[in-house]
## 1
Amino acid sequence: MYKILERVPDETLYTFVKSLTPDTTRNFYNFVGRNSEGIKAIVEDGRQNFFVQLYDGAPITAYGFLKTKVGCPWIVTFGLVVADNYQGKGYGKLLLDFMIHWAKERNITKIWGSVFYDNEHAIKLYKDVGFVCEGCFLNEVVEGSDKFRHLYSIALYLPMRAMSGISNWSTNPQWYIERF
Ligand SMILES: CC(C)(COP(=O)(O)OP(=O)(O)OC[C@H]1O[C@@H](n2cnc3c(N)ncnc32)[C@H](O)[C@@H]1OP(=O)(O)O)[C@@H](O)C(=O)NCCC(=O)NCCS
């Protein structure tokens, strides 16, 4: 049994962050370098936070956020991370489905994010729910002294309901990528 919360005490999120292994933070780097003040800032910076909490388990099992893009209220950026011991048990999919539903209810038409090119589990999950690749950012992060990691820019396009008057809403990035 689980519940999805939209607010937890800052310390609860901080404990969750501290529990993540380097392998996980390597793929979800929003928390990297944040102390407790930095975590507090995440909670208070205007994003919509979601937490999966088990009734009989760890205080937080998964964390996700949606954040409205400045100047573009129809777009949210997203992020998702599951506690190491709970990965591969369906909680990431569960929270992502919840976040997509939340966005649909609010007439969000695009959920945008990025994922490392070698993060196979995350890529499979995102593709399964309908995300497409919009392009990529090469050499975004360097690991050690010689290994670069690239990022895919990914998006899920939701049905457009509230933006009447706009006729060229596109859901096919490939068409543009090929013509670039
Ligand atoms: C990526 C992540 C959010 C997925 O959440 P999860 O709870 O582990 O994944 P789920 O159990 O919901 O599985 C969803 C799909 O992902 C794949 N998957 C996830 N973890 C997997 C694992 N350890 N091994 C194999 N496949 C896995 C599965 O194919 C699954 O699809 P299926 O249901 O058809 O089998 C989670 O593993 C995580 O937090 N990873 C580290 C941080 C990260 O990469 N965040 C995303 C940054 S963009």
Note: Residues 82 and 89 are 10 Å apart (CA to CA).
## 2
Amino acid sequence: MGEGRGEKGTQRGVVGRRRSAAHPRSLPRTDVDWWKHYFDAGYEREYEPLFDLVEDRRQVARIVELLELPAGSRVLDLACGQGRHAHLLAEAGFNVDGLDLSPYLIARAKERGTGRTLRYRRGDMRKLPATWSGRFDAVVNLFTSFGFFADARDDARVLRECARVLKPGGVMLWQGGSRDGVMARFLASDWWTTRDGTMIAQDRSFDPLTGFLTITSVWQRKSAVERREHRIRLYTASRMAELMLEAGLVVEQAWESFTDRPLSRRSSEMLLVARRER
Ligand SMILES: C[S@@+](CC[C@H](N)C(=O)[O-])C[C@H]1O[C@@H](n2cnc3c(N)ncnc32)[C@H](O)[C@@H]1O
């Protein structure tokens, strides 16, 4: 999310065009715990052009291909959001749990349906239920649902939790922004219009020391102006692989997001397939 998918989105405007009206004079410092409240109806609206059932199906088809698991396997969608992938993974024959911190998005996920093979619960990815140790054949973490925390040790903790809840030999599939690619084609600003006519303009800045990409969004509809800010710590594939290894997860494959192209230094998104050591 928000790392600068310049190649994406037909509803986007001219990349880099500046806005003049209603651009805020001063912006608030990013709240370090922004992730506790950011994922609400506003998030769904802001990223609306990227939420598309046809695209979700395409992504899930690729996930199924890469997981190579039999029907009935237990899959955890960690930070599942509004259940875009979880419900399709259940439809594909897996036994799925979705976990997310946002009550709003969990409620949205449940609207897509729940059942014997699809359950949702609220929780923090840094501390998964104790009863889940060794439970899952696969854990998926998608759409840069990672790198949110002020303390980078919390990101490492998430990976340790993923390893703990996987069965030995289980698969972790991680998809999100790739620092190398985002830097290679840095998109400092971007705008698009949502279906209801709201213009959303994003400005992005990057701090090389912390690795935080800070994204400021300004929404404008008629005379109403709103602004939101969030930040994501971006990792390179090699750093992710190191962190995963420290957690007991060995990266076996690296792809350019959901495509079948190998990850390159210019890929703004990556997909890593790792296996829990036996
Ligand atoms: C970028 S969204 C992606 C959601 C989903 N994976 C998708 O592809 O649509 C990131 C998700 O992480 C969730 N999240 C943020 N902090 C979290 C935490 N500490 N524990 C669990 N989920 C969290 C948010 O609520 C949000 O649903």
Note: The pocket of S-adenosylmethionine is lined by residues 1, 35, 39, 79-81, 84-85, 100-102, 105, 124-125, 142-145, 148 (CB under 6 Å).
